[in-house]
RNA sequence: CGGGGCGUAGCGCAGCCUGGUAGCGCACUUCGCUGGGGGUGAAGUGGUCGGAGGUUCGAAUCCUCUCGCCCCGACCA
C-alpha cells in the first residue's frame, strides 16, 4: 500500500476527552473516530488491526472445532421474554420498536437466539456436541461508556456457544476453549492471565476470565507467583493473615477522638498502625441490622457478603437508620454494649483473629483501644470471608502469598449448564430415546477491546508499538527526498515491488514529506519494521533498517535488506 | 442516578468576569526556499461561538430553558 493511496489522519495533539494512553494514541494515530458517546468508527488503519485480531480468533476457533455462523443483531422481545431476561437485563439493553410497534432489542448477547436455533435443529444426541460461534457487533447501553473502544456501547465480540449431551462433554469443550483462548492471546503477543471468576447472575458451575495485564485495567486480580492460583479479587478467598488470636495484653479504655471518624484518622491520631483498627459497616437485609467488622486497611467485598445467609439482598444503612439504632453518629460506631438480639455481628476472619484492637466506642467523639474478643464483648455471631483479598494474604491453595495486579477483561468463558436450554425447552433424544435437556457453555472475546488493551500494554513516548501479529502493516519504507533523487525513487520502487512479491504487508510512504514528519507518523501508528532509503546511504549501496522497539537503526546493504526483513516478519 | 466541569474552525485553546459584530497554535490550500527527526517565508481557505427563547440600540459575553460531551461518585463511616 502506498500512503498516497491510503488514508492517514494523524494528530499532534490528542482530543481532550481521551484520558487513557491507548485511547489518546488510537485517536492520534487515526485508528478510530468518535461519532457519539461509546460509538466509534474504525478508520482504515484501525480496521486493519481489528481484522488481524478477528482473523486470529477465527483461525483458532476453527482449529478447535468451532463452526462459524452469523446471527441477527436485532432480536425479537418475545424470545427474551421466554427466558425472563427482557426485564432482568435492564437498561443496558437497547430496546427498539419496528413500524408495527413490535418490540426488539439490539442484541447485547446471543444466548436466546442460539438456543432457539438449537431447540429447532438439534434433535438427537448424534448431533452433539457442537460449538457455534460468530464475530459480530454487539450493543450494550453502558451506564458510563469510557476509554474509547475499551468500554464502548457498540463493540465487536466473538461469542461462542457449545451444546452437549452431558456435563462431562461440556467440561471437555470448556477445557478446549480455555486452551484455545490461551493460544489466541499468546499468538496476539499479549501478556495475559486466566483467572477464576465469579459466575454472577449467569450462574453455572465454572467460569474463567482472561485478562490482559495493564495498570489501567478496571479489574483487580489476585495471583500467587509461586503457584498457578489466580482469581478475580471479587472471588479470591481471603484467608486470615494471622495464624491465631494472641492473648489480650492491654486494658480497654476510651480515648478522645473529637474529629476522627475514619480508621485512617484514628490511627494517625493515636500513632498506631492501621492494621490495629477495626471498622464497622452497617448493612440492612431482611429488615435486620448486620454489623460487618473489617480491619481498618481492608475493604468489604459485596459479592461475598451477598452470598452469606440472610444477606442476599443487603443494602447499606442510611445515616438516619444508624443514628436510630445506635444513638450514635456513623464514624464512632462500636460493637461493645450493643443489643445482640437485634444486631448481628459478622466479623471478617482477620478481625476474629485480632486482639488489643481499636474500634469506635459507640459514643460520639470516642474510640476504644485495647479491645479483645471474649473478654470485652461476646464472640462474633458469624466469622466469614467478607473482604477483598490483598497483597500479602496467604494464597488459598496454601502455596505462598498473594500478589495483586490489574487487568483488562478480554475474554470470559462459562459453563452455563441448562439455564437457557430449560427456559427455551431445548432438548434432544438420547441413545435410549429419552428426552434430555441440552447442556450449554458460552465463550466470549471482546475483539475490539483487545485492540485497546494491546495498545495499553504496548506503547512508548513516540506512539504505538503493537506486537507484529496485530500491526496494521508489517513494514514501512521511508524514502528520503524521493521527489528529488531518481536513485532513491528507483531503489524504493524496486524494494516495494520485491516486498510485495515476497508477501510482506508493506507500506510505502511516498508522500515526499520531510523525514521528521514521516518518521513521526510511522512511529505513531505502530509499524514493527522500517527501512529508510536515502541518497546518503545509497551512494555506498546501503539502506537503514530499524525495528520499532530498537534503540537505533542498523546499516544494511540494499541487496541484503529484503532477506533481513523476511527473517524478521 | 448523584456531584463537578466543558461546549468558540478538523485538533488543542484564548476571548466571557467588565456586552460593541471573533482570535492564537497546529492542520489544510498555493507559491518559494529547504531537504536524515514534526524546518521556513509569503499569500490564503475555513466558525449562524452546541440549540432555543429572553434582556439590550447591540449578546460568544448577561438571564432562562434545552441538548451534547467529559470526569468523579454510587453508600466501604
Helix content: 25-40%
Radius of gyration: 30 Å
The best one-word shape is globular
Give the mean pLDDT: 92
Count of DSSP helices? Answer: 16
Low-confidence stretches: none
Largest sheet, in brief, is:
9 strands, mixed
Q: What would you call the quaternary organization?
A: single chain
Describe this structure in words.
This protein is α+β, with helices and mostly antiparallel strands and 569 residues long. Helices cover 27% and strands 29% of the residues. Strands 3, 7, 8, 9, 10, 11, 12, 21 and 24 form a nine-stranded mixed beta sheet that branches. Helix 1 packs across helix 12. The chain is globular, with a radius of gyration of 30 Å. The two termini are 17 Å apart. The structure holds one RNA strand of 77 nucleotides.
Question: Gist?
Answer:
The chain is α+β, with helices and mostly antiparallel strands and 569 residues long.
Question: What is the topological layout?
Answer:
Layout: H1 21-28, E1 32-36, E2 39-42, H2 44-63, E3 67-68, E4 74-76, H3 77-83, H4 85-88, E5 94-97, E6 103-106, H5 111-121, E7 130-139, E8 154-164, H6 167-187, E9 192-196, E10 207-213, E11 219-223, E12 230-232, E13 253-256, H7 263-270, E14 278-285, E15 288-295, H8 302-306, E16 315-316, H9 319-326, E17 343-348, H10 349-352, E18 357-363, E19 366-371, E20 382-384, E21 403-417, H11 419-423, E22 427-429, E23 435-437, E24 439-446, H12 447-457, E25 459-460, E26 463-464, E27 475-479, H13 486-501, E28 506-508, H14 515-525, E29 529-533, H15 535-538, E30 542-547, E31 554-557, H16 558-568
Parallel strand pairs: 3-7, 15-17, 17-20, 27-28, 27-29
Antiparallel strand pairs: 1-2, 4-6, 5-6, 7-8, 8-24, 9-10, 10-21, 11-12, 11-21, 13-19, 14-15, 14-16, 18-19, 21-24, 22-23, 25-26, 29-30, 30-31
This protein binds one RNA strand of 77 nucleotides through strand 14, strand 16, helix 14 and helix 15.
